[in-house]
From TrEMBL:
GO BP, sorted A to Z: ERAD pathway; glycoprotein catabolic process; protein ubiquitination; regulation of protein catabolic process at postsynapse, modulating synaptic transmission; regulation of protein ubiquitination; SCF-dependent proteasomal ubiquitin-dependent protein catabolic process
Source organism, top-level taxon: Eukaryota
Transmembrane segments: none
One Pfam family it belongs to: F-box-like
Gene: FBXO2
Entry-linked Gene3D superfamilies: 1.20.1280.50, Galactose-binding domain-like
Protein name, as recorded: F-box protein 2
Domain named F-box: residues: 14-61
Domain FBA: 83-265
């Protein structure tokens, strides 16, 4: 009889994690780091693939990490997984935005007049950058047009093709410019969204902005948000520049700093 009992116990099926109810599995999987969910857990079996791809799991992760409210539901967003990753990866994609490394990362640098120079805030006849105490330097132009650009490779930064083509997250570009108090200046910003073959799919131009002499407006932010730009965007080309309007030798032109390109939910 004792042997029969042992035999019966051996015949009992073992209870594994896969036997748990799906709501419980989702609770457990939501505790796993997002990259491991996508790259590892999703490959375990068909059930786990379906759970990792489910809206319920990503809503829960967003709620756990403060990216969504407790009352948000599936209908609130088209793709909660993309929403999660866009929030977590939100960062400035431009490099060397204060000139700490001179012109590293900037291309097509056009040095009109005496060319670009990097100076410390506030500089002669300049203004403090009160919006962010971490901004310590700026680029300044001369008496002829100075331009520089930077190209962001979205795929290299982690924004895969399906995300850019289907979700088309907002691409937000910003720049800050200022003049000296004793010199007027001109400023321009041009940002292009480019295809794999560098065709222009969308474009923003500020036009030529004139800052009059004796202006005391300080630092001014300019921004633009690209939305519904269509499939195929792979690069963002950011270009800005300017010159002074008094044509004085030296660096009396527009000052620029804290430029940014961000992909946002």
């Amino acid at each position: 009889m004792e042997g029969d009992g042992d035999s019966e116990s051996l015949d009992q099926p073992e209870m594994g994690i896969e036997s748990l109810p799906e709501p419980v599995l989702i609770q457990i999987l939501a505790l796993v780091p997002a990259t491991e969910l996508v790259l590892m857990c999703r490959l375990v079996c068909l059930q786990w693939k379906a759970l990792v791809d489910s809206t319920s799991l990503w809503i829960l992760k967003c709620q756990q990490e403060g990216l969504a409210g407790e009352d948000e539901v599936e209908e609130d967003r088209e793709n909660w997984q993309f929403f999660y990753f866009l929030h977590k990866w939100k960062r400035n994609l431009l490099k060397n935005i204060f000139g700490e490394e001179e012109f590293e990362a900037w291309g097509d640098v056009e040095h009109g007049g005496d060319g670009w120079r990097v100076e410390e805030i506030p500089g002669d006849g300049g203004f403090d950058f009160s919006e962010d105490e971490n901004v310590k330097k700026y680029f300044v132009t001369s008496y002829e047009w100075c331009r520089k650009s930077q190209v962001v490779d979205l795929r290299a930064e982690g924004y895969w093709e399906e995300l850019m083509d289907t979700t088309q997250p907002a691409i937000v570009v910003k720049d800050w410019y200022s003049s000296r108090m004793d010199s007027g200046c001109l400023y321009e910003l041009c940002v292009k969204l480019l295809s794999e073959h560098e065709d222009v799919l969308a474009e923003y131009k500020s036009g030529t902005v004139a800052v009059p002499q004796q202006s005391d407006t300080g630092w001014t932010e300019i921004s633009h948000t690209f939305r519904d730009y269509g499939p195929g965007v792979r690069f963002v080309r950011f270009e800005h520049g300017g010159q002074d309007t008094v044509y004085w030798k030296g660096w009396f032109g527009v000052r620029v700093t804290n430029s940014s390109v961000m992909v946002e939910p």
